[in-house]
């Protein structure tokens, strides 16, 4: 058994059933801690040995935020658009064709806060990473984590100490802790999970107004 931390803005706590949870704080967010069994990824591959960072200059509180969105498909482009309302954003994708296509869209072509790239070394400047890659189901109904593992390998190859890495893709309970936890601890990074809330076909409310559930390793990551 292990603890999984869920946090939401305090104004949304009334929407949750917290009868079995305990509040811990205070902080910018209220932390809810509940005990749940972990469901490890179905594959036994050790992804904790796949990355060696090239960049060792740590991120500090004075560092200028640069949000790197890994995977700029349907969900990724919404993340790029929404985060660029406040911060500089790098949209990264391994497909150069996809990068060329999205750079031609009016919304992104005229936004000076947004840059797109298929070049992995460009990720070394990022302070925060949002991983938004497909997590499909295998024939046996388990999660296909291959894209996610590849993305994690790419991120930890270039993430600096102090970086925050968040999985936006849909994963099973326990996979964030299993895939990101040991790497984040070893590299001096923060890890988290925040399921995407983009709803295809719906325009109201806009994505940036929809409350999101977030989790972090450790709870300090919320700050």
Automatic annotation (TrEMBL):
Gene3D superfamilies reported in the protein's UniProt record: NAD(P)-binding Rossmann-like Domain
Top-rank taxon: Eukaryota
Protein name from the UniProt record: UDP-glucose/GDP-mannose dehydrogenase N-terminal domain-containing protein
Organism: Verticillium longisporum
Family: Belongs to the UDP-glucose/GDP-mannose dehydrogenase family.
Residue ranges of domain UDP-glucose/GDP-mannose dehydrogenase N-terminal in the record: 67-216
GO molecular function: NAD binding; oxidoreductase activity, acting on the CH-CH group of donors, NAD or NADP as acceptor; oxidoreductase activity, acting on the CH-OH group of donors, NAD or NADP as acceptor
A UniProt-annotated Pfam family: UDPG_MGDP_dh_N
InterPro entries in the cross-refs: NAD(P)-bd_dom_sf, UDP-Glc/GDP-Man, UDP-Glc/GDP-Man_DH_N, UDP_ManNAc/GlcNAc_DH
A biological process from GO: polysaccharide biosynthetic process
